[in-house]
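Entry 14. Structure prediction run on the chain below.
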Amino acid sequence: MPKTSPYAEKLTRIPVRDAAVDVEGTRTRYWEYGTPDAELTLVFVHGFRGDHHGLEPVVAHLPDTRIIAPDLPGFGESSRFAAQTHDIAGYARWLIAFTKTLGIDETGVIVGHSFGSIIVSAAVATGLPATRVVLINPIAAPALAGPRGILTRLAVAYYRAGALLPAPLGFALLRNPLIVRVMSETMAKTRDANLRRWIHAQHDAYFSAFADRDVVLEAFRASVSHDVSEFAARIEQPVLLIASDRDDLTPIAAQESLARMLPDATLRVIPNVGHLIHYEAPADAARYIQEFVRGGVS
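Output returned:
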């Protein structure tokens, strides 16, 4: 099994520091890549059950950019919310407060992957200042309506079992490495054996780094109860959608429909990739982001 990222050489050339701030009742850990005085700042919001590590392959291909990548409250190294539910509204409030605390104004670009795409969309629709918005593998339609909705129904049953079992057993089930591997095998589409093994290693290492059972159950319910389309009409900023043609959660038709709902949207489709653009095609994603934020696409 590969011990280092296939993107490690590029990533190690980029300066990085980590810090923490108190936001919305949580100690939020975040990582800052690049130089603090860079002309452009991007804020990366990761997906469900992940943490900031998941988007590092995209970071590796954006060497001349300042990137802020927090762990969502309750995931990775950020503490859970002290007194609110881990739902879309709560995460949206947190993201608005987080960017304000770090002094990121309307010149910043907000990037969300998967579950993060819903959080970003909700935050922007309710007042998060940003010059542009990028959504990678956006959840463009209800999860149960996706091309493999049966898998979502199985996931619902799995998380329901995790909720009904006694707390220690439920927590163990939700972190079960065999189930994590099944999820990883399902999502990965690459035929590159080494890349596939590394993707599985990433999921093994970080996919169960959530604070407790309530956090992951609340966030899962949020992930299958909302999608970007419900916020689309209220997002006035230019939006870049980076989608893929083998995404099991959202078909291309739904991405095209979402692009029409947004007042100012550009859709880029990466072929032969599924829901793991950030792992399987980070160079393509980074190139589209660079074109978009530097004015090449609007």
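The first strand starts at residue 16 and ends at 23.
Filed with the rest of this week's runs.
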